[in-house]
């Protein structure tokens, strides 16, 4: 009974095994009969045999393929491959997701970057659109002999005769140059400069019983020197005019700054017409530029035309007329660069005294302050890398009055001063409204080869009024010095500056002065101005220029 | 009261004009020793001691070897040249 049950159970197990195997490999079972493994059982012992024998009964037939290990391996490989493919797809999906994330991250970073450097953008624009510079002239000067004279440099003054060995440290220029470049070709410049405030201001009355002390005490103050708009593309469509510039505002006029650059030693002294009183800056409008021709675009002409106030940049305009200036420089051989080679220049200036239209002059000068002013300069100049030479002939009308002559040091007219008549004589000869000026100047420099040293010199001979037979104010001025150029921004000069009223000493009769301004001396008779020729001036300067 | 007589002044003026015109006649000669040095050595670095100042401003302008440089540019060239020494 037991063996029968066992046999039935074993047969069931084997049948299930066979069916399972067959169901898993249906194609093989149907298409090609596989060899069978026959199993036999001994019911008495329950042992299973692979061969028939006595007392053994067939238990089951099992396809050999069901026991094929290669098939099993292939099955496992297939399942593994499926799994790998699934994993690969998952990885690729992850890679895609990662790439998307990276793109998103980069976009985010860009956004952050665009947000972050607002200040950096501002700085970059600032660098492109804005520039700050500085120009400082300083000196130490010592006079072995002092006199009444024009200023050698702006904002310096010297005590008159009998003040030998006077010396001083000075700042004569301290530009702060602000340049704005809002668009191509357009420049705005603003330049404050120092000036020496001189004078004793009147203490103002405050209410009934109060006053404030004037602080007009000789301080170095700041004032506006230049403020203008410059557009340099206006005539660019005419090829020879490329490089032109039109400027409006408080501008450097067309002659003085140009002549300063030609000579190259403005930090040492004023140029001739600047020394005689023509300011370097006025309010107005001007056009300047070169004319270049030929394949090499050589400059043959350099021009400047301008209309300005009669007032300079440091005074207010009173007139209803205006001042005209022109300068034209011709380079007959063509100039490769500014000032290169031989050049000839003509400067012309015509304007009027800066007084209001309803000005009513009083005796003895009447309308003389309203008189026209004319200045001209005819120049021949040559410049190369080694040396430069300038010859200048100046002439003018009413272009040099007593204020110009005594801008650096003036005779006192206070009661008891020994110079009252001397000063009156100066006004009679120079402020009469009919004066004519004439002067010759020679300037030059020689650059010592392969050294930072340059020797320079200037000579001026000037007649403040050629109408005067022998004018005690006729003078000659000479400067010689040596410059040391430390680098591109800094240079020094040691020089001697001298002014000589060259006529032999003589007396001037008051009646002769009255022939220029009738009634100037009330009762001239035979009275004279004794020793009418001022003494000479001799000085040593140590100058410095810093420019950035 | 130093005496510079009219003949002396006219002499100086005449000499100045003559010298200026003479200079113009030699305009075809090498403008500077710098140009000759450059031709001989092939060195193109501008040396301030062989340049000429043509404009004082912010910045100043110099001409070296017929080329115009600002003071900033000359400083950069000098600095970079020094760094390569």
3D architecture notes:
The complex is a heterodimer of chains A (548) and B (85). Chain A has 548 residues and is α+β, with helices and mostly antiparallel strands. Chain A is 22% helix and 40% strand. In chain A, the strands form 4 sheets. Chain A has a 16-stranded antiparallel barrel. Chain A has a 3-stranded antiparallel sheet with strand order 2-1-3, with helices on one face. In chain A, strands 7-8 form a two-stranded antiparallel ribbon. In chain A, a hairpin with a 4-residue loop joins strand 19 and strand 20. The radius of gyration of chain A is 51 Å and the shape is rod-shaped. Chain B is α+β, with helices and mostly antiparallel strands and 85 residues long. Chain B has one domain. Chain B has 3 helices and 3 strands. Chain B has a 3-stranded antiparallel sheet with strand order 1-2-3. At the A-B interface, strand 4, strand 5, strand 15, strand 16 and strand 17 of A face helix 1, helix 2, strand 1, strand 2 and helix 3 of B.
Give me some keywords for this one.
heterodimer, A: 548 residues, alpha+beta, Porin, 3 domains, 16-stranded antiparallel barrel, rod-shaped, B: 85 residues, three-stranded antiparallel sheet, 3 helices, 49% helix, 14% strand
Summarize the SSE layout with pairings.
The complex is a heterodimer of chains A (548) and B (85).
Chain A (H helix, E strand, L loop, with lengths): L1 H23 L1 H6 L4 E7 L4 E3 L7 E7 L5 H47 L2 H12 E16 L21 E17 L2 E11 L8 E2 L3 E2 L8 E12 L13 E8 L3 H8 L8 H5 L4 E13 L4 E11 L14 E13 L5 E12 L19 E12 L3 E11 L4 H4 L14 H11 L5 E12 L5 E11 L11 E11 L4 E12 L6 E2 H5 L13 E2 L7 E11 L1
Antiparallel strand pairs in A: 1-2, 1-3, 4-5, 4-23, 5-6, 6-9, 7-8, 9-10, 10-11, 11-12, 12-13, 13-14, 14-15, 15-16, 16-17, 17-18, 18-19, 19-20, 20-23, 21-22
Chain B lengths: L5 H20 L7 H9 L10 E4 L5 E4 L2 E4 H13 L2
Antiparallel strand pairs in B: 1-2, 2-3
């Amino acid at each position: 009974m037991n063996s029968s049950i066992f046999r039935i159970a074993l047969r069931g197990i084997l049948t299930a095994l066979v069916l399972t195997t067959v169901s898993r490999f249906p194609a093989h079972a149907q298409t090609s009969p596989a060899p069978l493994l026959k199993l036999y059982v001994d019911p008495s012992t329950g042992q299973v045999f692979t061969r028939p024998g006595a007392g053994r009964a067939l238990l089951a037939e099992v396809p050999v393929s069901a026991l094929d290990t290669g098939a099993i391996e292939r099955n496992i490989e297939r399942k593994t491959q499926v799994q790998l493919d699934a994993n690969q797809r998952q990885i690729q999906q992850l890679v895609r997701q990662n790439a998307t994330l990276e793109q998103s991250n980069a976009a985010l970073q860009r956004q952050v970057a665009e947000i972050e450097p607002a200040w950096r953008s501002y700085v970059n624009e600032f660098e492109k659109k804005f520039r700050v510079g500085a120009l400082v002239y300083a000196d130490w000067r010592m006079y072995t002999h002092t006199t009444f004279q024009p200023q050698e440099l702006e904002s310096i003054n010297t005590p008159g005769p009998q003040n030998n060995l006077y010396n001083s440290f000075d700042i004569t220029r301290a530009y702060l140059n602000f340049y704005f470049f809002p668009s191509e070709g357009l420049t705005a410049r603003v330049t404050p400069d120092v000036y020496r405030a001189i004078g004793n201001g009147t203490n103002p009355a405050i209410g009934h019983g109060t006053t404030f002390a004037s602080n007009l005490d000789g301080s170095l103050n700041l004032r506006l020197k230049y403020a203008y708009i410059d557009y340099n593309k206006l005539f660019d469509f005419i090829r020879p005019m490329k490089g032109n510039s039109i400027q409006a505002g408080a501008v450097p006029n067309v002659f003085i700054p140009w002549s300063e650059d030609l000579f190259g030693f403005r930090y040492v002294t004023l140029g001739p017409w600047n020394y005689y009183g023509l300011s370097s800056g006025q309010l107005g409008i001007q056009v300047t530029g070169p004319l270049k021709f030929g394949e090499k675009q050589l400059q043959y002409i350099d021009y400047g035309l301008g209309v300005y106030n009669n007032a300079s940049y440091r005074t207010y305009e009173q007139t209803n007329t205006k001042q005209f200036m022109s300068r034209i420089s011709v380079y007959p051989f063509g100039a490769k660069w500014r000032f290169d080679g031989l050049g000839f220049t003509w400067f012309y200036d015509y304007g009027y005294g800066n007084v209001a239209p309803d000005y009513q002059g009083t005796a003895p000068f009447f309308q003389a302050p309203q008189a026209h002013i004319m200045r001209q300069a005819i120049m021949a100049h040559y410049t190369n890398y080694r040396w430069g030479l300038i010859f200048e002939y100046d002439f003018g009308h009413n272009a040099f009055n007593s204020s110009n002559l005594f801008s650096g040091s003036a005779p006192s007219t206070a009661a008891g001063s020994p110079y009252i008549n001397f000063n009156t004589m100066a006004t009679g000869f120079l402020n009469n409204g009919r004066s004519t000026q004439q002067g010759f100047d020679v300037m030059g420099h020689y650059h010592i080869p392969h050294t930072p040293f340059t020797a320079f010199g200037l000579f001026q001979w000037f007649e403040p009024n050629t109408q005067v037979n022998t004018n005690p104010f006729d003078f000659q001025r000479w400067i010689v010095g040596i410059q040391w150029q430390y680098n591109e921004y800094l240079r020094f000069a040691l020089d001697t500056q001298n002014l000589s009223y060259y006529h032999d000493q003589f007396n001037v009769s008051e009646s002769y002065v009255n022939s220029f301004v009738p009634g100037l001396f009330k009762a001239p008779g035979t009275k004279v101005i004794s020793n009418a020729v001022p003494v000479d001036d001799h000085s040593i300067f140590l100058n410095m220029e810093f420019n950035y | 009261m130093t005496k510079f007589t009219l003949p002396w002044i006219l002499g100086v003026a005449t000499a100045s004009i003559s010298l200026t015109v003479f200079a113009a006649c030699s305009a075809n000669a090498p403008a500077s020793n710098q140009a000759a040095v450059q031709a001989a050595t092939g060195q193109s670095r501008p040396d301030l001691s062989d340049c000429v100042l043509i404009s004082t401003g912010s910045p100043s302008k110099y001409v070296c070897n017929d080329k115009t440089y600002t003071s900033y540019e000359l400083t950069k060239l000098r600095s970079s040249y020094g760094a390569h020494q």
